[in-house]
Structure formats: structure tokens, C-alpha cells
Design a protein that fits this description.
- This protein has about 250 residues and is α/β, with parallel strands linked by helices.
- The protein has one domain: Rossmann fold (3-Layer(aba) Sandwich), CATH 3.40.50.
- Helices cover about 45% and strands about 15% of the residues.
- Strands 3-2-1-4-5-6-7 form a 7-stranded parallel beta sheet, sandwiched between helices.
- Strand 1, helix 1 and strand 2 form a beta-alpha-beta unit.
- Helix 1 packs across helix 9, helix 3 runs parallel beside helix 4 and helix 4 packs parallel to helix 6.
- The longest helix is centred in the middle third of the chain and has 23 residues.
- It is globular, with a radius of gyration of 17 Å.
- The termini are far apart.
Length: about 250
């Protein structure tokens, strides 16, 4: 990708899954990468595997921790060009059993965290790109994920608003994956569950995290200078049939 070499990037939730794949791809493209993740053990493991990166253990829902993390990273990297706002959580729960505690924690991480990180990043960017993690669940909804669906719908709309307010210096885009086969998900699937989920996806498979990372790299690069305010769906065609795919 043109223009990623030397770019200074932060990936939240970057110690595993899609976040880690994005870290690896950005490094391959020559970017300088820092990771913010609340899992201290995963951060240590990532730092050992990729000693050229900077890792900071922090909760994206905690404004004070984030301010300290962004300040430290911006000082070490001498600025900031790219934020991949990837950190998120989800846990299935029937709506009538969904607790206020779970609702507030999901919103704190998946929506408030995106807001806080985007604000901290934009304040430190002369020019740059903010890539927010949405989901097809924020477009179609999914039973038993009311909190997650609502948060991701909020991320999509927040992206549009930030794109208007931060232009022309900062581009803001959202990506909305469908099913992605992270190591954690793969460990939880039975063969029957995997087959059932793949059957509802037109391309008949889950995405690989590296495929999501490739889109992140493209959007962060100089190959995508006119893309802002968009929500790019990457779901193997799942959402093309609307609710018929649910």
C-alpha cells in the first residue's frame, strides 16, 4: 500500500484476533505500531512475539487510562497518523435477561471506548485516519445481542458524524465485518455449528482475520484518500439478503 511506511498507528484491542492481524499487516507495510489492550498477559505475549511494537495495558472505557496511554504513545512516536478503533466485547443474552450491568459495560467498551479513542486520537493528529470497528450486527440486528447490536449501530452513526466534523484533515471510516474465524471462535465451534453458520453466508465460509486486516491497511493508506464517512461491509455477502440471512 502506498503511504503506510513510517506511519504512526495505534490499534486498540490489538493483542489478539482481528486486532493482532491488523498489527501484523501494518508492520508488514512499514508502519510504526502501538497497541492498547486491557489483557496484560496477551500484551506481554504480543510484545515478545513482535518486539518492534509498543504495548500499553489500558481499558478503552477508562478516560484517564486512555489519556495517559495516548499521551505516552504520541510522545514516543512523535505524533499519530492512524487509529484502528478495534477493541470490543460481546456476550449473548436474551433481551429479557440482559442485565443493566452487562448493557452498561458493553456500551462503555464498544461505543464509549470508540468515542474516547477517536477524540484522543483526533486531538493528536495533524492529518490522519480513524478506522472504527462496526459490525453487520449494527445493520441487521441479531437475536440475543441487543447491547452489542445497539453499540455497533451507534459506532456506524458516530463515524458519519466524525467524518463531517474532522474533515478535511482527518478521514473517518467504519468497517463492518460479518463472521470472522478468530482462534477464539474456532476453539468454541463444533463442526455442526461451523457448517450451519457457513451455510448462511453466500461465500460459504468465515472471513480470515488477515482479510479484515487487509481492508484496514488499505483504508489507512494513501490508496484511499477520498474515502471518508463510509461504512464498508465485509461479510461474504451475508447482509446482501437482509434479514433473510438471519
Amino acid at each position: 500500500m502506498r503511504g503506510l511506511k513510517g506511519k504512526r498507528a495505534i490499534v486498540t484491542g490489538g493483542a489478539r484476533g482481528i486486532g493482532r492481524a491488523a498489527v501484523e499487516r501494518l508492520l508488514e507495510e512499514g508502519a510504526r505500531v502501538a497497541v492498547i489492550d486491557q489483557d496484560a498477559d496477551a500484551c506481554r505475549g504480543l510484545q515478545t512475539a513482535l518486539p518492534e511494537i509498543l504495548t500499553i495495558c489500558a481499558d478503552v472505557a477508562d478516560k484517564d487510562q486512555l489519556e495517559q496511554a495516548f499521551t505516552e504513545i504520541a510522545e514516543i512516536l512523535s505524533g499519530l497518523d492512524v487509529l484502528f478503533n478495534n477493541a470490543g466485547i460481546s456476550a449473548p443474552s436474551p433481551f429479557l435477561e440482559l442485565s443493566v450491568t452487562q448493557w452498561r459495560r458493553t456500551m462503555a467498551v464498544d461505543l464509549d471506548g470508540v468515542f474516547l479513542c477517536a477524540q484522543a486520537a483526533a486531538r493528536r493528529m495533524a492529518q490522519g485516519v480513524i478506522i472504527n470497528m462496526g459490525s453487520v450486527s449494527g445493520l441487521l440486528g441479531m437475536p440475543r445481542y441487543a447491547d452489542y447490536n445497539a453499540a455497533k449501530a451507534g459506532v456506524i452513526e458516530l463515524t458519519r458524524t466524525l467524518a463531517l466534523e474532522l474533515a478535511p484533515a482527518v478521514r473517518v471510516v467504519c468497517i463492518s465485518p460479518g463472521y470472522v474465524l478468530t482462534p477464539m471462535q474456532e476453539a468454541e465451534y463444533t463442526a455442526d455449528r461451523m457448517a450451519a453458520l457457513n451455510a448462511r453466508i453466500p461465500l460459504q465460509r468465515h472471513a480470515d482475520p488477515a482479510e479484515i486486516a487487509a481492508l484496514v491497511a488499505f483504508l489507512a493508506s494513501d490508496e484511499a484518500p477520498f474515502i471518508t464517512g463510509s461504512n464498508l461491509v465485509i461479510d461474504g455477502g451475508e447482509s446482501a439478503g437482509g434479514t433473510a440471512s438471519l
